[in-house]
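Next up, a specimen:

>
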Amino acid sequence: MLLSLSNTPRDYAWGSTTLLADLEGREPVGTPEAEVWFGDHPGDPAEVADGTTLDAVTGGTLPYLLKLLAAADPLSIQVHPTVAQARDGWTREAGLAADDPQRNYRDENHKPELIVALSDRFEALGGLRPVPDTLRLVEALGSSHGIAALRERLGGEGDVLRDAIAWLLSGAAQAEVDDIIAALSGATSDEFAAELDAVRSIAARNPGDPGVVVALLMNFIVLRHGEGIFLRAGLLHAYVSGLGVEIMAASDNVLRGGLTPKHIDVPELLSVLDTTPGVVPVLRPAASGAVTAYPVDVPDFALRRVALSGTPVAVEISGPAMVLATGGEVSVEGVDAVARAIPVGKAVFATADEKALVLSGTGEAFIAHPGV
């Protein structure tokens, strides 16, 4: 069975006033539109065409949440726990009310996620840069007291990235944070020009926030249309700007580390943070063929992009699936062989009895379903 889905965009402050409207070919509403949720998450279940919501169909059992995400300003720097860490945190916070702003753990699940760019440019921070590279970037900032203190910490022994992040977020380093942020304005570097420009822009939107200096320690990633990154548990990240399709495990567990007025629990963030430095691989669209798979090593979800050029494309699915149209004119058929048009920015849900879907038209769509 196929069901048409829609939802109202969520109005988070970092959202774009134009990206979702432009995607859907409508007039902007004049206020930020940040995310559209296609799932059965109790916080905002998708709306079914018959007036019900998707959780009434699934019983709230979908292992994934599919979204459109439109960022005009940076999201918070954040990290998500493993399943074991989430279960432990959930148990420790059993005495807190479900809506307590001091609560870190909203459920017992992990929250790995995959983002694929729809805009021509999507900017993100992902993972921690190797320390020798960051030391070269810091050299471009000069030699004032804050920069000298950061350089000293990064040049020490042991887990220097964890030590530096703990210091920056402690509240005791605000004078050094302010000094480092001030030094950004005059810094130049041929090697790190893009990184410095990005962090200057973040600083302008978040004056005095220690997360600005944490961002200096992170990899700056630019995705082009159809490119994606997978963000595993423990990996520090923040989306900076752009429009994308995001899929994640069905969880609301977020530990924040800056660029936000929301609750920040530094010890808890550090307890789940993986400070292993390295590059986050970019997953690129297929060089040939209509279907691009974005491989991830979790069972909660799988995501494929289908580029349609007039020839129908059959795609096998496993479990309850969604087809989200992101461009052109897209139709989908299930076992009943009845074609259903999917407006851009909307989705169709396929119940678990559907084993394959046929997509037709000219345009672009994404298929989400549980992993195998």
The chain has a mean pLDDT of 96. The longest strand covers residues 356-369. DSSP finds ten helices and 18 strands in the chain. The first helix runs from residue 19 to 24.
